[in-house]
Amino acid sequence: IGKKEKNMSLKHILTATIFSLAFPVAAQQPSVTVKPFGAMFLEAPPGRDKNLVPMGGFGAQEKVEIHAIATFTNKVIVNSPLFRGDSKVKATAVLVDKTTMDLGSADISSFRKTSDDGKRTLLSISIARLPDKPISAVNFNGAVNIQVASGTSRKTINFEPKVGNRIDAGLGAITVSVVEANSFTLSGSDQLDRIAGVKILKADGTTMVGERGGHSRIGDSDKTIVQTQWSFKSSISAGKLEVSIYDGLETIDVPIKLSVNKSY
After folding, report:
1. Termini Cα distance of the chain
2. pLDDT digits (tens, 9 = 90+) for 60-104
3. Contact (Cβ atoms closer than 8 angstroms) between residue 108 and residue 66
4. pLDDT confidence band for 239 (50 / 70 / 90)
5. Which pLDDT score, from 0 to 100, does residue 57 have?
6. Burial class (CB within 10 angstroms; exposed 0-12, middle 13-18, buried 19+) of 77
7. What sign for the dihedral angle of Cα 161, 166, 169, 173?
8. How far apart are CA 180 and CA 231, in angstroms?
9. Residue-wise pLDDT tens digits, 189-234
10. DSSP assignment of the chain, as one string?
């Protein structure tokens, strides 16, 4: 090719390269799977006799429940002890004649159980009302909201276990509200839920790892007070407090499409 054409081609290649580099890198999309591993199908006893309700029913005359594990491959599940209250899963009964009946909203266990690596969490979904007609299955469809993070970062600050002391972790106003022999309680805003874990680094070089204990939320959307207790295996003392903080928080609607078949 001629010199002029060669210069034009190089110019176009250079322009295209610069243009492509100007695009922002897309955020990594959450990858999640839901796999069931156990279920219960309990119908009401004859005549709905409460004296014949099995012990496993925990007082419910009829109940269908399924347990599943939600697994994230590229996110960390926020280890909050409670699920968000705005999850929505509907239960539908499949009758023996193949017709269906809407059973309304299913119950979702509010207590969170999360694996040590923060990649898996337990989902327990149930319905405690069934139609007075022969049924063959119950379907659960909807979504469960799970808060996840892109990762964690650490901040180390001076620490003295004294009521009223501030914890400057960059998460707003956090104070020590309760101190006991082997635990302390932190109070603050919603930002307190970003704390993934705490460690006390003692002057003698030993480390005390905290375990999340009691958790409470008081208030509404305008102002919420969050309290979280951290417990230790031995008496706490002054030193450095290493705080692990969740970064890049987002709430994911995890799709639910599960079914429990009557096997008897």
Report:
1. 80
2. 789 999 999 999 999 999 987 665 566 799 999 999 999 999 999
3. no
4. very high
5. 58
6. buried
7. positive
8. 9
9. 988 989 999 999 998 889 999 999 888 888 766 778 899 999 999 9
10. --HHHHHHHHHHHHHHHHHHHTSPPPPPPP-EEEEEEEEEEEPPPGGG-GGG--GGGTT-SSEEEEEEEEEESSSEE---SB--TT-EEEEEEEETTS-EEEEEEPEE--B--B-TTSSEEEEEEEE----SS-EEEEEEEEEEEEEEESEEEEEEEEE---TT-B--SSSSS-EEEEEETTEEEEEESGGGGGEEEEEEE-TTS-EEE-EEEEEEEEE-SS-EEEEEEEE-SS---SEEEEEEEEES-EEEEEEEEEEEE---
The model's pTM is 0.77
Task: Output the six-digit token pair for 261.
Answer: 């078949």
